[in-house]
Records
---
Amino acid sequence: MKTSGFSGQTERVRTDPLETPGINASRTGHVLRAWLVAVVPSLLYFFALVAIGADSLRPPAGALGATFAAYSILAAPLLETALMFPLASLLALVIPRQTRVQIVLLAAICALAHRFGGGWQQVIASLWPFLIYSATMTMWLKRSRRDAFVLTALVHALYNATFFGVGALGNFLAAPDG
């Protein structure tokens, strides 16, 4: 609690790290912060897997083509955000005032959906970024449905673009000297 100068009234100072501060919070700033919070630990996890031989810097065959790039950087974030959106809205209705629970449930469901495409390692690898996407979706949904969708998709697209770039760099570094 903080006491204001002359009135003797107190105001609550927001300290919740999951809440976006201020009514005019910067959308661009939020996207960039959320992207960094999602991508840095994920890159550390990925490089740890590479270091122990459980993964490779070299991307799978065909993963650097224009079609795959368009899918992973543009289509997948839009599609997955579109699938997250009704679930986030439902969780907000079913368990209101439980923002952290909404975020964790949404992230867990989205990460578990990745089991179909890549096994348990994919679930583990996608849990952290989906926590960040879910936090973005849940927090911005309180302000604007459009902003919740757009900002979540942008964070996801930047994340995927980063890993696409790592794949391209890994392919370059793994290429035989020519």
---
Amino acid sequence: MRAYKPGGRFDADFETDSILNGFNDDYQRPVGTQALWYVYDPSLSTVDPIYDTAGTDPGVGRYWRGPFDLPVLRAVITQGPVPNSERGFYGGDYLHLTLHGEDLNTIAPGVLGNPDVQNRGRIIWQGQVYRPYKVQQKGIVAERFTLVVVDCIQIMPEEAVNDTQFLAYASANEGYDAGAYNEDTYGDE
């Protein structure tokens, strides 16, 4: 007669812990990167009821808790399209992050059960501000998430001027080391 509950040497928690440790040993430590995650806090935010934007008064507007250090297993940046329009050239980059599920759950508890709540959060990576637009769980073992993928779009500098927490990023010169590629040094051997 066969047992109703098949058992074995290792249970699901052991296997999940082993998977998560493998992510840390094989991805995070040798080739991972870091990001800063800001969690949107609607209870401390004051926004325009129609346009969902912050006001111009200092200390009033949208508020994010953080920053929280977020270990990233894998980050892929994609140059956004720059279509010609009546506004001129305007394009934002896309960022694809692969995260350790429990790291994200430590920063923003409950986000794995309801990932849409973080679509108003902010992520800073490589000196640029991004807004998550898709948080997707990619692995689950016995009700524990192992991997989470976060797809983000870049917040342009002029979009950050009304959010006092991100005023430092509201200058077009912030971010990637633009000084390393100016006309004085570009092409020099």
---
Amino acid sequence: MPDQSRRNGVPWPGVALLLLSSVPSLLGGRRRRRPRVQGRELNAYRRNLTELTSMIDLELVSLADLVDALRRRDADPDAALVDLQASEEKLDRAAESLRGILAPEELHALHAEYEASLERAIRGVVTAERGCGITKLPYRPPDDEEPLIYWKRGHLNILHARLRMTELVATLLTWEPGMPAEATVAARLGRFREG
């Protein structure tokens, strides 16, 4: 006996299933797409950020060593003050350049946090400069402890800001479109488990 579904004009079940599955694409249905971040723009952002942040990091390492030497009284406050002021100006210019870099939308918050951490490091430099300025006052004895307090606070601000900035840069440079942009401890632990 011939196939009843063919004689009545009803298509085979396989053909019907194929047609039903292709209807959404024929009607303009959407496939899942990754968020639109142009590869060239992301690579340009990473390149600019890498250049700038590596210069900033090197400057902060030398500043942390200098302020730590001041704290241990291994450096001359007058000579250190000149270096601190030059480094502060260099970091201020870097902060301006950093504000000029346009981050992808998903990274705006982390980029802004990096800028805030850089400002914290600059405040640490200014605090260390104040400690050097106190040593120049004529009525201060040479073994006064007040400059040490400024140098200790300045050193800790520079050190902690640099540590956070390192975490942020690691996230900013490894972020991929479609992934969450987080620089938290949980995200860092997850990244280490995967890698």
---
Amino acid sequence: MSRANYKLVEDEREIKDAEYLILLILGKAGGRISILHLQKIFFTLWKFHPQVRRLVDFVPHLRGPYSSDLDDLIKNPTYVVDCWEYIPPKRGSEAERVKGGYLEITEKGEEIYRKIVDGLNEKAKEDEDALALISAVDLIVSLYTRLEWDELLLLLYTDENIKEYSEKSELSREIIKNSEKIVDRLIKKGIIPEEKRGSLMKRIKSARWIV
């Protein structure tokens, strides 16, 4: 196989893997997820899992870390076709605008999602990377989908380890301004324990890259 053909095959494989991961996240989320949440879940996986990092690129954006590659795959899938439907955001709602619309799984998508899960679970018996990916998806999806859009962005914006992805955000200052109310909600939900309030508020006030 020539180098050009090998590169083409690799590119096709990465596109297919990225689309399967979108469907895996969507299925784990219960079949419906906002584009904002999907982007941030994918980013967190991308940041910490080598297999995901080769699939797409992320850059700083108006709403924090963002991948145009991922956005294109979400709205124009090549291989995982008719497995989800994109629902545009409702007009007149700031929250809906920020969320960027939703993905909803289709009947075909549910069938393929179950096959993906079965395949990964079988592979994970002998492959540590597959096991790590399944565990990471389970953990991150279950946490992030419990968060409202501003709760999710507050935790991402104030994470010093990824601060370079928050510097261009159009929402960061407004979210920091409302941080006490957001933290109250996080504690009420049980996402953050009451005894961690002080350290979280300190982290927020130390996020000088936003100010």
